[in-house]
Specification:
424 residues; 13-stranded antiparallel β-sheet; globular; 11 helices; seven-stranded parallel β-sheet
Length: 424
């Protein structure tokens, strides 16, 4: 397994004399053969700025930095794949933060790239290759012309064509899970927020947050356009907005109006679920699916990352339990990070949290963050570090009725043969 690295121009090489290493949080570690899969279709190799690659000198067996002006290389995985290890590197400038992406260890073996990852869901639906740009541009023109006064369509057109957001693209392609952002405000100050960062954070938000309050008619127009097939999903709560439940006064009447006109498809919300009273109203209006973002079931870790404003993790749990009891299919958007999520105490707490809330799906999502910055704000490990692979196996054993996946699904998914579609 040769180390993969890049020069200052971004050219990627494999090193014939150095074996690849990975990182589990702060610990440089060996990469095991059973942790590797071929580089998935839709993945991207990127150079990690301000880093030096670390490997094993094949001749001496010593851990060494690759000499010269070279950088570590990582892979950015498409949805459906869970990262098991970070790339092996050390910072060359510790004052600099890496851009907000989920870097995965990559190696060269058998004349091909491999990554330390695991297939956890069918990658087909979120593979960028299945988004035809020509068709997308045509559909953007069609729908923005049909609804020239709808600011949400105008906003989503930039998300689809500028940011290449697949959920926004689905809204125009009128398929699968589509987006309907509603909120410019948030009741959390997430350390890794991708749509809004304070100037002093050192991060650059990769997306611009929406800056207007939509009208109910703008919301319902998008919902009715999208909910045209039995398997369609329309989702409140996108990367370009704040917390959608802060706009419950818009969401509740929008859902009611749409459901008076069609029973087709499913209505989903991606939420932090901290505003329990608002979530109850949204659930009662006719919500079908709810995905709740979390990074931990431990208060100190959760609070360090989310910086919740006027709510606690207990509110999140109450919201999930209420939705589950009302028949909503609930899941968590579990932001996972090698060396943190696979800590013994984290695993134990999450298993109990899942059991108490009755959710059906754990969506394992690779945390996009600068590793050093993240590790600097969260509690230190209190128990044994088990590794991501073993963590997943423990979840499968301890939570046999809970599905491990990577994105939201319609109810049919939970009764079908999921394994038949899990192909590389």
């Amino acid at each position: 397994m040769n180390l993969v690295y890049s020069d200052s121009q971004g050219n990627v090489f494999d090193h014939p004399d150095y074996l690849a290493l990975g990182r589990n949080a702060e610990m440089i570690t060996e990469i095991m053969e059973d942790e590797l899969i071929p580089l998935p279709e839709g993945a991207t190799l990127v150079s990690l700025p301000f880093t030096r690659p670390v490997g094993i000198d094949a001749e001496t067996g010593d851990m060494k930095l690759v000499p010269g002006d070279y950088h570590a290389v990582g892979a950015l995985l498409p949805q459906g794949f869970t990262r098991l290890l970070l790339p092996g590197y050390v910072k060359s400038d510790k004052t600099k933060a890496l851009p907000l992406f989920g870097y995965t260890a990559v190696v060269w073996k058998d004349d091909a790239f491999y990554v330390a990852a695991r297939l956890t869901d069918n990658p087909y639906f979120w593979n960028p290759i299945h988004c035809d740009v020509t068709e997308l541009e045509s559909q953007v023109k069609t729908l923005t012309a049909k609804y020239p006064e709808n600011r949400l369509y105008a906003h989503l057109s930039n998300c689809a064509l500028g940011y290449e957001c697949l959920t926004a693209s689905n809204t125009f392609l009128q398929r699968w899970e589509g987006a309907v952002p509603v909120s410019y405000s948030c009741n959390a100050g997430c350390f890794g927020c991708i749509s809004e960062q304070p100037d002093e954070s050192g991060f650059v938000a990769p997306q611009t947050r929406m800056n207007f309050k939509p009208q109910i008619e703008e919301i319902t127009q998008i919902m009715l356009e999208h909910l045209r097939t039995p398997e369609s999903i329309i989702s409140f709560g996108q990367g370009c907005e704040g917390e959608p439940s802060t706009q419950a006064a818009l969401i509740i009447p929008a859902i009611k109006q749409v459901r008076e006109q069609t029973k087709m498809g499913y209505i989903n919300i991606n939420t932090n679920a901290g505003l329990t009273d608002h979530i109850r109203g949204i659930v009662d209006a006719g919500l079908d699916l709810m995905r709740v973002s979390t990074i931990s079931a431990l208060d100190d870790h959760y609070n360090a990352y989310y910086k919740p404003r006027a709510y606690t993790l207990k509110n999140v749990e109450k919201s999930l339990r209420y939705a589950t009891d009302k028949g909503v299919i609930t899941s968590i958007n579990y932001l996972v990070f090698p060396g943190v999520t696979d800590r013994e105490e984290e695993i134990e707490a999450m298993i109990e949290f899942v059991r108490r809330t009755g959710l059906k799906l754990i969506q394992l999502r690779n945390l996009n963050i600068d590793p050093e910055s993240y590790l600097g704000i969260i509690p230190k490990a209190r128990g044994e570090l088990l590794g991501m692979k073993q963590m997943i196996e423990i979840f499968e054993q301890e939570l046999p009725d809970v599905v491990l996946g990577s994105y939201s699904h319609t109810p049919k998914f939970y009764t079908s043969d999921r394994n038949a579609t899990m192909v590389l």
